[in-house]
Amino acid sequence: MYRLLKYVIIVVAVLFCGCRHERCDTPIGASACSINPNSPLYNRLNNVGGYEYIVGGNHGIFVMRTSLNEFVAYERTCPHDHNAAVEVVDGWDGTILKCPVCGSQFNTYADGMPLDGSMTSCPLYEYGTTYDGGTLYIY
Prior knowledge:
The protein is an alpha+beta fold. The protein has a single domain (29-138), classed as Rieske Iron-sulfur Protein (3-layer Sandwich), CATH 2.102.10.10. 12% of the residues lie in helices and 27% in strands. The chain has 1 helix and 11 strands. The protein has a 4-stranded antiparallel β-sheet with strand order 2-3-4-9, with no helix packed on it. A 4-stranded antiparallel β-sheet has the order 5-6-7-8, with no helix packed on it. Strand 5 (87-88) and strand 6 form a beta hairpin. The N and C termini lie far apart (57 Å). Residues 4-20 have low confidence and may be disordered.
C-alpha cells in the first residue's frame, strides 16, 4: 500500500509541477474597425509588405499587407510584458516586431510567433481581417 501511494504522489507531482505552460492571455481592447488601405492616409499599406500602426486594441494594432488582397493585423501588446507595445525592428520591413522592454521578437509572416531567444512562447494576438477590395475590416 505504501509503495502504491508513493507512485501516486510522484505521478501527481510530475503532472502538476513538471509541465509548466505559459498562459497566453494577452489583453486586447476594442478592435472592430475598418479602413481604406488604398487611401493616402495609409500610404504604406498601398504596397505588398507595407505596414501601418492604427488606433485600436489595447496598445494599438499593427496591420500589414501580405498580398494584393490579404492583410494581417496583430495586437501590439507584448504577450510577455502587457505594459509594452511591440514595434517594427529597425532595418526590417515590418516582418519582425520587437518588445522594447523584454526584447522578445515576433515574426509577422509566421502567425506572430516568437523568435528563438524571446522571453515568451506565446504569439502576438492576431485579429481577424476581411478585405472586400476597398475596405479592410479588422475584428
